[in-house]
Amino acid sequence: NAGVTQTPKFRILKIGQSMTLQCTQDMNHNYMYWYRQDPGMGLKLIYYSVGAGITDKGEVPNGYNVSRSTTEDFPLRLELAAPSQTSVYFCASSYSYSYNSPLHFGNGTRLTVT
Amino acid sequence: AQSVSQHNHHVILSEAASLELGCNYSYGGTVNLFWYVQYPGQHLQLLLKYFSGDPLVKGIKGFEAEFIKSKFSFNLRKPSVQWSDTAEYFCAVTCCHSGGTSYGKLTFGQGTILTVHP
After folding, report:
1. Which pLDDT score is estimated for A15?
2. Is the dihedral of CA B44, A61, A41, A98 positive or negative?
């Protein structure tokens, strides 16, 4: 049982490049989330999904896209990378939206855009 | 909009010292509160959570937190810290919208880095 797996762990992009951050979970969780973590700013929700085929914007969705074709996978797409997207990205999942269902986080992807 | 404020950015303690990390939130409705911990190089892990009932919540590794509704606070405490408690600590509240569910969305505070010297 691997939990939430994110790839890659590190990536350097040039301005204008695109990339996809991968996230997969093997816990059969319906709910999945993408957060970004900036120093001194805590975590901000980018996008979330409540099940396959259903996604919605979080607090800071601009510059990102997501898809959820399967229960297991929730990739985050950056189409035109900008320096403001330099951050650490965390994917998370939960069994339900019940408050008794905590978030399980991946190990993060550290992205630098130069 | 909901917000969570953690007053201390960086706390430095010696082993065996007592710890209290402040957390205040701004939300007028029913809240659910969490403390997450991120050890160096690791992902966030749930430390403890409050939903209802006893406002004093006990979590893992000897941590506890007290929910004080009148002060909109949920401070984290530990009587005697250890070197292994060195980590970043995040307070979070569910992001609830009127008429809907939170879908587990959390609003996080800025984080407090705790450094414990042996």
Report:
1. 97
2. negative
